[in-house]
Amino acid sequence: MAFASNPLSLSVTEPAFEAWLRDTGYLEILDDRAASADPSPTSSSPSPSSSSSVPDPPLRPRTSAPAAESSGLAARAFSSIRTFTSLFTLNPFAKLTPEDLSGGTPSWTLEFIGGAGSYSWPAGSAQSRMRVQENVRRYARNYALLSVIVFACTLYKMPVSLLGLIACLVLWEFGRFCGDKWQLEERSPGIRQAFIHIAQLATAVVLYMCNLQLAIACAVGVSYAVLIFHAFLRKLTPRRIPGANQHGRLMQRR
């Protein structure tokens, strides 16, 4: 979200301005206005004042209704395709900060999934970029947990990769146990470094033979697809603050 410089405006940084929009709820208002607006040119009609002051244009041969409808459908389809292709040009993690991962996990049913009216097709590339980057910040912990679940399911479907990963973990744990028992770090650090290099080579060979890289690639691809489509279609709804309902009830009682 970039704005042209104005010498009469206050010098507010872009992150501070976006934080103000997020805290005051204006991001949700902007998303709702953009989603409810009708971008089709056929929906606009002249006002009565303008129609009375401007003379009527000369009559032209009217196009048939099926032709006008087909042209409108083609325009909407082209706009939807252009909005969808904008997903491949944006970085969903551009505005992600460590504070977004250290916060609490939003509710899976009320906030992350939401209801049937919580999803809509963005009106343009600007709205899709705003949705994706903001939803990634809001549901960062949900997406991270989903990635772990997808990776676990991938390993379950590929038992050879799972066994290879367990074998590598056992190998490193056995090496650490032997190093602590024989005190290789104090007595002979050279032998310890040699054991580490041998363990690294053995780990690489085992992981390659077990096709763990394929499991990681599948998990990353599925997780990224779920993230990008959910953040693309999910509306920006006001975030629920824990304890807000109880606080409101207490204020009403007072």
TrEMBL record:
Q: Which domain of life is it from?
A: Eukaryota
Family matches, as InterPro entries? Prenylated_rab_accept_PRA1
Location of this chain's protein in the cell? Membrane
- GO terms of biological process kind: vesicle-mediated transport
Query: How does the UniProt record describe the way this protein sits in the membrane?
Result: Multi-pass membrane protein
Give the CC-aspect GO terms.
Answer: endoplasmic reticulum; Golgi apparatus; membrane
| A Pfam family this chain is assigned to | PRA1
Location, primary (coarse class): membrane
Residue stretches of biased makeup (Low complexity): 36-54
User: Which residue spans traverse the membrane?
Assistant: 139-156, 214-233
Q: Which UniProt keywords apply?
A: Membrane, Transmembrane, Transmembrane helix, Transport
Stretches assigned to coiled coil: none
Enumerate the residue ranges of region (Disordered): 31-68
Its family remark reads: Belongs to the PRA1 family.
- Relate the protein's function as given in its record: May be involved in both secretory and endocytic intracellular trafficking in the endosomal/prevacuolar compartments.
Q: Which PANTHER family match?
A: PRA1 FAMILY PROTEIN H, PRENYLATED RAB ACCEPTOR 1-RELATED
Q: What is this protein called?
A: PRA1 family protein
* Source species: Ensete ventricosum (Abyssinian banana)
